[in-house]
Amino acid sequence: MPEPEFSAQSSVDVARRLQIRGDDSRSWIALIMPAQDSQNALSNLQADLSSLLQRPTRIFDLQNEPLDTLARVLHEPEDDIGILVAHADIGLERWSSLDLMRSALERKGPIILWLSSDCIPGIVEHAPNIRSFIGGSLFCAGPEGGLMTEEDREKRLRELREFYDLTNDQVIERARSKALPSEPHFVEWLVLLGRGDLV
Length: 199
Hints:
Blueprint: H1 11-21, E1 28-32, H2 38-53, E2 57-61, H3 67-73, E3 81-86, H4 92-100, H5 102-105, E4 111-115, H6 120-126, H7 128-134, E5 138-140, H8 150-164, H9 168-176, H10 184-192
C-alpha cells in the first residue's frame, strides 16, 4: 500500500479564522505546506490573507534570516500579517534559539508559520514555547481555495486508519499519553480530527 499523503486545507479558511479573531489577536497559526506546488500555495495564501483581511502580508525566510533581524523587521510594522517560511527542518539549534527569543517575536499582527511536514517534530521537541503559542491552530494547507469537505475529511481519515491499522480513538488516546510518534502523518491525523491541541 502506498504511503498516504497530506490532505489539503484552505488558505481562505485561515483568513476567515483570523478575521473572526480580530485585528489585534496576536495569533500564531502553523500551516503544513502541501508536498506539491508549495510555492504556488504560498502565493495563494498571501493573496487570500491580503484580500480578505485588507492588510499587507509579508513573507520571511525562517531558515536563513538572522533571528535578530527577523525580530526587528516583524515590528516594522507590527500589525500586518507575517508569514515565516521553512521549506525543510531548520534543526535543533535554530528551533531552540527561536524558542528562546519568542517574546521578541510577539506582535499585534498574526504570525503564520508555513512549514514543511518535517519541521513539526522540531517544534514539538525543541520549541515548546512556540508550540504553546500555536496551541490548537495547526492545520494542513493546500494550493486550492475552498474548504475541505466532510466527505474528503472522512475519506482521508479512513485511509489513515487502514494504513496504520488504528482507530481514531486509539490515536487520540496515544497522543494524550504521549505515546504517539510525532511523525507527520500522525500530526495530520490529529489535525483532521480537530485535535491539533494534542500534537
